[in-house]
Amino acid sequence: MLLFVVGILVVILGFAVGGFVKDNKAEVIGGPKGANLKWQKNPKQLVALVGVIIAAASCFAQVPTGHTGIVTTFGKVEDYTFEAGIHFKAPWNEIIKMDNRNQKGVQELSCFSSDIQEVTMIYTINYQIDKQNAQNIYKTIGINYYDTVIVPRVQEAVKAMTAKYDAENLVSSREELAIAIEDKLAETLAEYNIQLINTAIENIDFTDAFTTAVEEKQVAVQQKLKAESEAAAKIIAAQATADANKLLEESITEKILTQQLLEKWDGKYPTVMGDSNMMFDLSTLISE
After folding, report:
1. What percent of the chain shows pLDDT beyond 70?
2. 78-102 pLDDT, tens per residue?
């Protein structure tokens, strides 16, 4: 609108100053000489031409690729939009260009787990506006919809979902947490005609004191598991030895012992010492 007004003023100025001059030779009936104005060619008429060009230019608008043109008339949002390209418009129409491409936002958030442990998280979001409802976004939110809607909704979703997990389970449940946050955020942003493409938890961090406590607990658990494993191994070994001995005892019979004795006997009977220091060979007695 301003451009159109400037163009009209330039046209008027060009015609008024450059197009008309006094003609002292002209005579006007009933009037003195020199009172008549006569149009003549003058380089200053170019000023008027420039004004016409400026005014005409205000009737065209260009919407860049990846944007949607919101049409307003004296501040009132029209119910139609312009796609990318050059469009004819009324001089009093203003075109607001809104980015409808895939956009990325990164937030560093501080929240708390269910056991009141402070959690620092870097959260990224990829989103885009609904082109068909771009004028509604501008009408209800404005062009700064990222700071107005997306930032607080991301904080709300992340804090609400993180509070459902204790600190120790947050890392192991990271994928589950990411899905829960994304589902809640997608539903919320859809109410504002903003489409959620994808999200990601880039990093999860805890306080130094909590991290140290977790590390010490893990070391203690590992040492306990090692001791229990060694004790179990000793019990198993002792049981195996006892079972082997029992099996051996059960397998040794009187017949087996006699057989083993005969296999080791050299065929000689022992010499027996009797009363009065008498010695005799047991084999001779057996033979008799």
Report:
1. 61
2. 989 999 999 988 888 899 999 999 9
C-alpha–C-alpha distance, residues 265 and 19, integer Å: 151
Predicted local confidence at residue 234, as pLDDT:
79
Angstrom CA distances, 2 to 7, 56, 91, 92, stand at: 9, 12, 9, 8
User: Helix or strand or coil: residue 114?
Assistant: coil
User: Would you give the distance in Å from CA 84 to the centre of its chain?
Assistant: 30
Under 8 Å between Cβ of 206 and 117? yes
Q: Of 43-52, 121-130, 154-163, 191-200, where does mean pLDDT reach its minimum?
A: 43-52
**φ, ψ for residue 254 (rounded to 5)?**
-65, -35
How many residues are given for the chain? Answer: 288
The label of the residue with tokens 């919320």 reads: 188
End-to-end CA distance of the chain: 149
